[in-house]
Amino acid sequence: MIPTQIQKYISLRQTQPAITTKKPCPTHICCLLAFVVAAAIAMPAQTLTTLAEFDGANGAFPYYGSLVQGSNGSYYGTTLLGGATFNGTVFEITTSGALTTLYSFCSQTNCADGQGPYGGLALGFGENLYGTTINGGANDEGTVFQITPTGTLTTLYNFCSQANCSDGGAPVAGLVSASNGDLYGTTLFGGKYDSGTVFQLTPAGKLTTLYSFCSKANCTDGYDVQSPLVRSSNGKYYGVTFGGGANGWGTVFDVTTTGKFSTLHSFAFTDGANPWGGLVQADDGDLYGTTEDGGSSNNGTVFRITETGKFATIYNFCVKLYCTDGSIPAGTLTRATSSSLYGTTASGGTGHLGTVFEITTTGVLTTLHSFAGADGAAPYAGVVANGDLYGTTYGGGDLNCTNPPGGCGTVFSLTQQPRKE
Fewer CB under 10 Å: which end of the chain, C or N? Predict the structure, then answer.
């Protein structure tokens, strides 16, 4: 079953807390917000446009899933809560800000269609979109779903359909679509050791469990996977675990399509801890990611790792007084130019409500925007780049949306000036 900490996000209705500088800790580890003095590069805030504000009825609290762009130019995403039954939505938004709720979860009896889409969407064949819910479905342990751009939803798989949930349960992370149409993803629980799985799912809904976490003594292979996998140029899939590893602070791993698994790095806290966002492969062939905690001030890091496991921390957050460079980087990075990436922090910045940043592959960070509440707060998801940057914030916007006031989140665009190569 899903633990109380995460279950709260699905059962909340009118009591969603206001956004603060601390993350809501939906798992078992929280962070401290420390203030230290050091140096980073800042630049004048660029132009941010709030494209849409969530008000509950049209969705609430877009969480860890980044937006994805369809061939029609619109962006698609999910909200954890809100919608017709307040159990989450799939939405479409145009670049001019026209928002359409394509689907409200728990529209079927006993939430057979799923409940609580925690992660984002993946594009597949035929412009269909694919995603996961962490609750609901036939066994109330989550689903994989397909949805058309016009909002027709099909449940492809119900987790815990096998004895002892050996097929996994609670797929928190989003999916990645392979060139043959197969989907790859992870579950938070279930599997042989009830610590989560890596799975492959065909478009017809046939699931194969590739790996069960905690297969090694003391879970040195990691557990608690909350971010999507990424397919590398070598054909392997790479990911991170929030917990476990040799030091208990999470890992970086790779897994093949046949289930051969390797732990590439165990975080030691000083080099980062508790990675939540997924990985991205840059033009140099290396993989880049973030940790929510750890580093020099326990406010998170940006790291680089090669396909074979050579690791380096390239940035420690909160190196500016009062964390004006940001803290708690939770979302997946996205490629910008051949030598830089874009990302978000859920806290810190001049407004203490999160930032959008650019970072070079050598670790030079530029803060592009600091959120202030009315324009959004706590961007847990990453951004996508298509000329401008597009993303979501978990809170802020219409500050009267929640009780106590805190906002139900926004969709934003940010004009940006690409770094010259």
Answer: C
